[in-house]
Amino acid sequence: MLPHSRSALSTPASQGGLSALFRPNSIAVIGASPTSDVRRQSLELYKQIGYSGKVAAVNPKYEEIAGYPCYPSLKSMPFVPDAVLILRNREATLAALEEAADVGVRAAVVPEIGFAEAGAEGTAAQARLVDIARTSGMAVLGPNSGGVINWLDRVHLNMSSFEVRRPGQVAFFSQGGGTRAALIASRRGVRWSHAITCGNEAVTGSADFLRYFVDDPRVRVICGFVEAVRDPDRFFFECDRARAAGKPVILLKPGRTEASREMAAAHTGALTSPYQFYRELFKRHGVVQVDSFEELLASALIAQAGRSPGEGRLGVACPSGGLVQMYLDESAKCPALSYAEFEPRTVNALRSLLPDSVPCRNLLDFWGIEDLEEGSRKIFQTIASDPNVDIFAAPYDPNHPGASGAAYKLWADCAVAAAAATNKLVTLITPVDGSIPPEKVEEFLDKNVLVLGQRDVFRALDRAVAWARPTPPIADEQPIDISSMATRLHEFGGKPFAGKPALDFLAAAGIQVIESRFVTSAGAAISAADELGYPVVAKIGDTGVLHRTELSGVITNLRNAEELSAAATKLFAAGSQFLMIQPYVRDGIEMILGLQTDDVLGSFVLVGQGGIWTEIMEDVALRPAGLRVDEPEHMLAELRVEKLLRGVRGASALDTKALVGAVRRLDAVARGLGDQIRSIDINPLFVRERGVVAVDALIVPSSNGRSQDTNDS
């Protein structure tokens, strides 16, 4: 569950409704027509896919379409269908849905567009659709949905044509029809069980489909193309269930640019959150996130194999120095992978097969062996059987002519033999992805050998290894004074506040803050400095001034009363009612520590390089609130500034333990008050040899209604 997710929870689809959507015993196609290819082909596909249930058409103009009986209305049919596919315009769709609800239909697919993605009128029409479905308990897929295909049970409720194929164990849901079509038609070896186009998810959505696939024992892998997560609490709960069930959830999420996010809103009416928020939530809930169609297919192919990648220790036999170099370069980007240290027994066996001039090491370039056929077979078997090897790989390029082509065929046969003798992952790597015929890919799959492209194989293996590793539990929540902090928020009536009240707010959370004095005259400023000790900093102290730096409202390194008096006079003359006097911190490294709450996805904690470097370096790590054990330490390890924190070139190491403590304190604020806070910006937070200290902060309550740009140090 997500701390303080702000999405309105949708109503979960009933199990009966989902069963009727995926495995209906009877179907009616409303609006079918023999004069339209689009409105006729859905019926024709029932014979092609081998559906064994009852099928009828609904259209008052005809008595028969594509060999199936046709009736004027649902009410005139001799049976009540479990599910309907509605091929009508928007208003007629709503009327058909009302009739379906009246007769007791349990599921419906609505391909028609022009609903929430099409302005106020469409939004009102979608609201009516939702009301019909909710009142009747019907599972409705769409609107704006291409439908559902179920190869396992030989059934579809699909608008367009599709290939009838051998069923597999990989389910796929997509919030775009074109993306679904591209992936299921790719013929890269992924064997699909189901394919769904979600559309607007007005009633039945991604979380429901995840739940259905997690509960279906025939599904081994779940893939998705996700523009936005409309119900994050349920969606990520199902991702957690999938992980517990040993079923990888592999997602491709577009939206890294503002233009892409705007397109999502226009496409399916989805409200999208920042990409980096999704990225971190996917990590938190064990989702395998990929960046391209190719990577999704590669990851799905590995997952459907059902063979464990173990600890990711590769054993590679490759008779090409150039390819070996490419493998090394690509695998270096994959932290979960390594090259196995061969056991002495393996080294001795290989040494007896190799020319003296060939080094016996992993990756093994075995070019030049005397007996190519027998030597290759023994080399592949020897490496694949080494206990230190989890994954065996070899090259495959059938497009080579002549003797070279014959050699690659031989090596493919050797890989097949190795796969038959082990339960480890065995993969052939093509120099160019997709360069072998789909029929050949399927032939190798039947023999437990994967065929993957050189670029994607290492990334996919890396993700598979990382997914299989256990995740640490959520850390215990740090005790903080939630009641006192909530009172401070309410005192400002929902308005942002900075300066000393913001620092007092942090102090209530147990975060060390710098000692400050609030003054209203130059004389009082000097008295405060005498107490604090020079040098000092003078800042505009008005709590409603949120961007002091931009207003030249921060004057640092004031070394005596004369300099302070001049600075105070200048700031008061500029309109300040109050000044804040603080000691001038000269040691340590400036960091930024923050909290951000998204309207849909909830609260996130961030830490990064602070001060004037925040926007320049963009060196920030982000995590969803509710940090796991050791997660703050992992956040720091991601930062470029972490090397400075550890101490370089003779500099002393700084107190990263105290910094981790401050991150955990802010996480406790997010857990306890995240729904009341839009953002917290602590910048700078100085990390010193002993301890940390917050020098400035800005608090934006959620009632303010929008995020603000917050660099006020």
Describe the fold and architecture:
The chain is of the alpha/beta class. It has four domains: 289 residues, Rossmann fold (3-Layer(aba) Sandwich); 161 residues, Rossmann fold (3-Layer(aba) Sandwich), CATH 3.40.50.261; 69 residues, ATP-grasp fold, A domain (Dna Ligase, domain 1, 2-Layer Sandwich); 116 residues, ATP-grasp fold, B domain (D-amino Acid Aminotransferase, Chain A, domain 1), CATH 3.30.470.20. 38% of the residues lie in helices and 20% in strands. Strand 6, helix 4 and strand 7 form a beta-alpha-beta unit.
Give a nutshell description of this structure:
By secondary structure, the protein is an alpha/beta fold.
Q: What distance lies between the first and last C-alpha atoms, to the nearest angstrom?
A: 35 Å
Provide the spatial order of strands within the biggest beta sheet: 3-4-2-1-5-6-7
Task: Compute the number of structural domains.
Answer: 4
**Percent range for helical residues?**
25-40%
- Report the CATH architecture of the largest domain: 3-Layer(aba) Sandwich
Which of globular, elongated, flat, extended, rod-shaped describes the shape?
Answer: flat
Kindly provide the radius of gyration, computed on alpha-carbon positions and rounded to a whole number of angstroms: 31 Å
Q: What are the low-pLDDT stretches, counting only 5+ consecutive residues below 50?
A: 266-271, 704-713
CATH level-4 homologous superfamily of the largest domain: Succinyl-CoA synthetase domains
- Alpha-beta classification: alpha/beta
The DSSP helix count reads: 24
Count all strands and give the number.
30
Percentage beta strand = 15-25%
Let me know the average pLDDT: 91
> What is the CATH C level class of the largest domain, in words?
Alpha Beta
Describe the main β-sheet briefly: 7 strands, mixed
Kindly identify the CATH topology of the largest domain.
Rossmann fold
